[in-house]
Amino acid sequence: MAEFLPSVDNATDLVWSYARAFDDWFMNFMRSHWFLQDLIQNPISRVISESLLVLFIVLFTYETIYWSGIYLDLWEYHAKDIFTEVPIHCAHVYVRVNVANKDSLADVKEYYELKQRSAYNVLNWKKLNELALVIFKLPQFVKYHFEFSPEDFEGNPEPEFGSNIEHLRQKVLTTFFASPLCNRFDSGKLTKDDVLVYNNKSIAVGPEDDKTYLSKIHIETGNVIDAIVLV
């Protein structure tokens, strides 16, 4: 389009040259499609149609640049202090429980690091299964379904966020003590700190996050997560 523009010295003339070039392109485009010709039958419909197209281009360009910048962390959402994002509290979760020796902690970490990288890599699934047979004391994970009622989190500073990691660790440990599995292992001195919790991304949630709410650390309603009891 630029090759049809005359050489001008004045900025105003340059703007008008671009505007005329755009108008010529717009009219040629509309005339070349029979189903669009009715939109430029008279000057009023022509102005409305062209204005709507310009408005669409401007808004589309603005939104693309604006949200791309937010996604790339170049700037922040302009109303983040007004419209704060409040996670929905975790109402229930499925926890796959297994048991490992405390001196196998490094192997457990290796297993979950590999699991993070193997979500869509079937070539690593065999290695994961082989590692699991060596590391864990149970041939299969035991899945429990935990529900969180208001009594579980009404004493928290922000009960609207639901339960926290510390409560989940204790819930897993209490369930483990009440299950037949407990009798198979030396579990007399176990505490909640011996329960490793992994979120829905297979990332370990450390003790420094015990007071963090589940919904804020990638454990959401209906998720299936893992918990390893170290004996």
From TrEMBL:
Top-level taxon of the source organism: Eukaryota
Protein name according to UniProt: Uncharacterized protein
Native source organism of the sequence: Candidozyma duobushaemuli
